[in-house]
Amino acid sequence: MAPRKAKKDLNKTELITEVAEIATPSLSKRQAKAAVDAAFTVISATVAKGKNVRIAGFGSFVVKQRKRRMGINPQTKQKITIPKKKVPGFRPAAAFKAAVDKKR
């Protein structure tokens, strides 16, 4: 496969196209879309349950806990308490970091 032309971002449609081209010659875009959607669904559902998803050489999708903190309502200037909450996060693997840094 020829390298992708330098572009700002890679969207989901382009990701599906690249997966279809790289995976196998017989993988259709429809099958690639199903695979990509399934992977995103599994990752989202697992992280939503509070579990981490580790992909060797790529990174980990993790659940991060934000602490309760004080904030200010911008309209009323009143101090408010922002409750603690869980948010999704990503920790890149060393190999992924090295691949990104190598492209500078």
Account of the 3D structure:
This protein has 104 residues and is an alpha+beta fold. The chain folds into 2 domains: 10-49, no CATH class; 51-104, Irregular (HU Protein, Chain A). The protein has helices spanning 12-23, 29-48, 94-102; strands spanning 53-55, 59-66, 69-72, 79-82, 85-92. The strands form 2 sheets. The chain has a 3-stranded antiparallel sheet. The protein has a two-stranded antiparallel ribbon with strand order 3-4. β3 (69-72) and β4 form a beta hairpin. α1 (12-23) packs across α2. The radius of gyration is 19 Å and the shape is elongated. It starts with 11 loop residues before the first helix and ends with a helix. The mean pLDDT is 89.
Q: How many angstroms separate the termini?
A: 22 Å
**How many separate helices?**
3
Strand content: 25-35%
Looking at CATH, the homologous superfamily of the largest domain is IHF-like DNA-binding proteins
Shape: elongated
What is the topology, as strand order, of the major beta sheet? 1-2-5
Mean pLDDT, rounded to whole units?
Answer: 89
* Secondary-structure content class: alpha+beta
CATH fold type of the largest domain: HU Protein, Chain A
Biggest pleated sheet? 3 strands, antiparallel
**CATH architecture descriptor text of the largest domain:** Irregular
Total number of beta strands: 5
